[in-house]
Design a protein that fits this description.
- The complex is a heterodimer.
- Chain A has five helices and seven strands; from the N terminus they run H-H-E-E-H-H-E-H-E-E-E-E.
- Chain A is of the alpha+beta class.
- Chain A is rod-shaped and about 100 Å long.
- Chain B is an alpha+beta fold.
- In chain B, the strands form five sheets. A five-stranded antiparallel β-sheet of chain B has the order 14-13-12-6-17, sandwiched between helices.
- In chain B, helix 1 crosses helix 4.
- The longest helix of chain B is centred in the middle third of the chain and has 14 residues, at about 125-140.
- Chain B is elongated.
- Chain B starts with a strand and ends with a strand.
- Mean pLDDT of chain B is about 90; it is low at about 5-10.
- The chains are: A alpha+beta, B alpha+beta.
- At the A-B interface, strand 1 of A face helix 4, strand 11, strand 15 and strand 16 of B.
């Protein structure tokens, strides 16, 4: 009788342990799944010019990309998963200039802009290039577009006291992590690339 | 001791192969009251240009590329044509032997002549290549300028040949061919030292001289005459681009309209003198 009681007790204890393990596994947080701020799902379904999006929201989305690879994309072309557009729900033009996300100071803190500056080589101006002040972001984008033949325009940028920095613009593929890019001096308009 | 020279001058281009064309210096030595004794003859390259240079650049490759190709030419038009011939096989080398390239490995590189002739990688975009030909001509005293070819109207980019368009397109009316879906950039016109340069740009730079358009980046056939703008764009561009936004995920999508190459179509890009 005593032996049966011991066996029962052992079995009961084992069952309890298994139950505890099962419960703990089904309730623990899934740390392996990164959090993705999906601002796209909140966007309206109808065609909307990109300018209506919050730039900050888009940048946060980029920062939280789950891919372990670089966020620099390797192809200038849209990927093969393009939706099958049908007539009547066509895309809407957003304007003449490519949209640029301007990083805030906190968002830009992860990029070594001083290092970019030191690595940058000045793109020599032509003999007729007149130095001039570039005062605003709009002027900087226009200056870039007028001055350089680019295959893919930059889509991310940052501004400090002396320079405008553009991610990419000197490559034929999109660059969003400033691994390649272009800087414009505010006081002279000189353009450099790294 | 005294040294003296030169004794002879030849005006033909010397490519370091044909001794008869070399600019030779005979060196003699005189010690004290002795007679002059010939001690050596050295051979040199002398570049005889068509007219006084109208560029401040003095990189030797500019002289070499012009004089070698236009050797013995005395007329501006034929000299220009011969010099452009250097670009048509898409192999252009500097004096140091480095072959220069256009958008190699999808990198823009430099944007002007001086850098293209001095950069370690010798890589540059259309601004540098159109500048190189301009400055080769200017070194010979021939007037030449760069021309910036810019999209107009609702277009923001040019699609350089070659592209394949599939029917029916799925994009918006103004630019119906969606890149990646209806329009595919295929290996088409090769560029300098690059069999497949990028297929689209926000604009393109070429060279104009003597009323003729030259496209050194691609070594393309020249166009001239009153209708040269139309002729050029129809030979170079498959279409014109604009960026749209996908309604489903707000992704940017490039869309193209095909270049209207019909005779009645007006010029679809702008041409600016960019010096």
């Amino acid at each position: 009788m005593k032996r049966k009681l011991i066996i029962f007790t052992v079995l009961a204890a084992a069952a309890f342990v298994l139950l505890v393990v099962y419960i703990s596994r089904t309730t623990e947080p899934k740390n392996s799944t990164p959090v993705v701020l999906n601002v796209i799902q909140e966007a309206p379904k109808e065609a909307v010019p990109r300018e209506t999006l919050s730039p900050r929201g888009k940048i946060e989305q980029i920062a939280l990309q789950p891919s372990p690879k670089s966020i620099t994309e390797s192809s200038p072309m849209p990927n093969k998963s393009l939706p099958k557009f049908s007539e009547g729900e066509l895309v809407k033009a957003k304007g003449p200039a490519s949209f640029i996300d301007w990083l805030g100071v906190n968002e830009a803190a992860r990029f070594p802009f001083a290092q970019f500056r030191s690595n940058a080589m000045r793109l020599s101006p032509s003999e007729s290039w007149k130095l001039r002040t570039i005062a605003s972001r709009e002027e900087a984008v226009a200056h870039l577009n007028l001055s350089l033949s680019m295959a893919v325009k930059p889509s991310v940028a940052f501004e400090d006291k002396e320079f405008f920095y553009f991610s990419g613009g000197n490559t034929a593929y999109p660059v969003k992590d400033f691994s390649k890019g272009i800087a414009i001096r505010k006081d002279t308009g000189e353009i450099s690339a790294w | 001791m005294s040294l003296a020279g030169p004794k002879t001058v030849l005006s033909q281009f010397y490519d370091k192969k044909d001794d008869a064309k070399a600019f030779k210096l005979d060196w003699e030595i005189k010690v004290g009251n002795s007679d002059w004794l010939k001690i050596a003859t050295t051979k040199h390259t002398v570049y005889v240009v068509l007219k006084d240079p109208i560029t401040s650049l003095r990189q030797e490759s500019l002289a070499e590329l012009g004089c070698r190709n236009a050797d013995n030419e005395t007329a501006e038009a034929s000299a220009r044509s011969k010099m452009y011939g250097e670009f048509t096989d898409l192999v252009v080398k500097r004096l140091d032997g480095k072959q220069m390239t256009y958008w190699l490995n999808n990198q823009m590189g430099c944007i002007d002549t001086a850098d293209l002739l001095s950069r370690t990688d010798g890589n540059g975009n259309c601004q540098s290549w159109s500048g190189l030909f301009r400055d080769i001509l200017r070194f010979q005293g021939i007037q030449a300028d760069r021309i910036k070819v810019s999209p107009q109207g609702k277009d923001t980019g040019v699609a350089v040949k070659a592209w394949i368009f599939t029917e029916p397109p799925h994009g918006p009316a103004n630019h119906p061919y969606i890149i990646g879906l209806d329009a595919t950039d295929v290996q088409g016109v090769p560029g300098q030292g690059n069999p497949n340069p990028p297929g689209s740009f926000n604009g393109h730079w070429i060279t104009e001289s003597g009323g003729t358009y030259f496209d050194p980046s691609y070594g393309a056939p020249v166009v001239s005459g009153a209708n040269k703008g139309k002729l050029y764009e129809d030979s170079a561009f498959a279409g014109f681009m604009e960026i749209y936004v996908s309604p489903d995920d707000l992704r940017e999508v490039g869309c193209i309209r095909q270049n209207d190459t019909s005779a009645q179509s007006p010029a679809e890009v702008n041409y600016f003198d960019a010096n």
